[in-house]
Amino acid sequence: MFTKTTFLAFALMALFGAALLLGACHATAGAGEDISKTGDAITKSADEHTP
């Protein structure tokens, strides 16, 4: 059915794909934190400058 080389190639592609997805999740989480901090700063500024 599958040769050892074919199985190894599929396994390496799966690991590489998983690494990319995990890296993307970490980057997305970091971006979410940055956006949240920006929103908090805008809210704080609006509260300080509201009469």
Q: Top keywords for this entry?
A:
51 residues; mainly alpha; 1 helix
> Low-confidence parts lasting 5 or more residues at pLDDT below 50?
none
Contiguous helical run count = 1
* First-to-last CA distance: 75 Å
Strand percentage lies at under 5%
What level of helicity do the residues show? over 70%
Oligomer: single chain
Quickly give the structural class.
Answer: mainly alpha
Organism: Hypericibacter terrae
Protein name: Entericidin
Signal peptide: 1-29
InterPro entries: Entericidin (IPR012556)
What does this protein structure show overall?
By secondary structure, the chain is mainly α. The protein is 88% helix and 0% strand. The protein is built from one helix and no strands. The chain is rod-shaped, with a radius of gyration of 22 Å. It starts with a helix and ends with a helix.
Q: What is the topology?
A:
Elements: H1 4-48
Brief characterization of the structure:
The protein has 51 residues and is an all-alpha fold. It is 88% helix and 0% strand.
